[in-house]
Amino acid sequence: MSDAMMPAQRLWTGDYYNEGAGHADPFDTLREECGVFGVFGHAEAASLSYYGLHALQHRGEESAGICTTDGADFNYHRSMGLVKEVFDRDKLTSLRGDRSIGHVRYSTSGDSKLTNAQPLIFKYRDGDLAVATNGNIVNAPKIRRQLEQSGSIFQTTSDTEVIAHLIARSPKDFVEAAKDALGQLVGGFAFLLLTNDKLIAASDPNGLRPLVMGRLGDAYLFSSETCAFEVVGAETLREIQPGEMLVLDRDGLREERYAEPARKALCAMEYIYFARPDSDMNGSNLHASRKRMGQVMAQESFVDADVVTGVPDSSISAAIGYAEQTGIPYELGLIKNKYTGRTFIQPSQELREQGVKMKLSAVRRVVEGKRVVMIDDSIVRGTTSRRIVNLLREAGATEVHVRITSPPFKNPCFYGIDTPDRGELIASYKTVEEICREIHADSLEFLSPQGLIQAVGGENAKDYKGGLCMACFDNDYPTRTDFDGEEKFGCTC
Question: Which residues form the active site (predicted)?
Answer without folding.
Answer: 34 (nucleophile)
